[in-house]
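A protein record pairs a chain with a discrete description of its three-dimensional fold. The following entry can be read in just this way:
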Amino acid sequence: MKPLRLLMTADAIGGVWQYATDLAGALAPLGVDTVIALLGPAPSADQRRAADAIPGVTLVDTGLPVDWLCEDAAPVRAAGAAIADLAREHAVDLIQYNMPTLAAAPAGLPTIAVTHGCVSTWWAAAKRSQLDQAYLWHRSLMLEGLRAVDRVVAPTRAYGESVAALYGLPLAPVAVHNGRNAPAEIKPGPLSDEAITVGRMWDSVKNAALLDRVAARLAVPFYAAGALVGPHNERVTLNHLQTLGEIDGDTVRRRLAGRPVFVSAASFEPFGLAVLEAAQAGCALVLSDIATFRELWDGAAVFVSGDDAQTWAAAVEALIADPARRHTLGEAARVRAARYTPAAAARAMATHYRALLSGDVTRVAA
């Protein structure tokens, strides 16, 4: 087939960077060259080297803002217009917005948006209240972007349904699961009698405070990898979790190679790449009983409802005390994780790209 040129937006702050670079690498063998338009802070030296090593990928550090660090819609609209100009400059065939608010600016090209999370869906999970008036502009611009693109994708059906319900969309986004490549260079070691959680500890939806109370009840070490302070100076104080701070991917993989019990008490998770990485390592999973995790890991994890620390601690302790069950559950997670690869995501996304280029448009709302 004719080679395809794609412009894909990303930022270097969180999981979208990993998603975008993994996807771009898996798209290259399918005949898709990708321009990654980076918004927000500049990439680290390691991130830039990783992007430069991907065949068929051009990284453009735009210096444009990410929407959730803006105070109103004006800079986001301007960023969307700049992305459209960049797409024309690089003569791409279509645009994938990993920040759907950017799509509110007309691009004059086929467009697809992947909604990885937004202020409104996060707020509903974190605050369980009406969105603060200060962020109504974001909700409005998000809806405008979702309506403007030719197709909307979500990383899980569960999150897509949440987006459709919150924004009143008559058609839910289609689901294309995220993926990671399982590392081959680090081999599993003996089971380590410890627990670990990985993620943005400062983010209230990760429920680090609950896990801190769980750690106080465990006889084994419970480690937490991730930032304690967020970009808006959000912070969490942890007294019982053994904090590792922000550690690089290789260090995380070495930790996971010991197959600790991996715990996520997240109340909001559109997909959960950290859980996938733990599953790839063969870790037994103890997860919050939310729709996203059920969709991805039902039958391959222990699920815990509510925020009773003793219930969570008992679930972890039961696995520590039963190595055979822990091994069986870890193997089930590893087998399930094999479904979620960048190659599978790339095949699905390339099908959507080609459909759009042939004129098959499916908007979530008129």
Observations:
- Residues 244 and 296 are 27 Å apart (CA to CA).
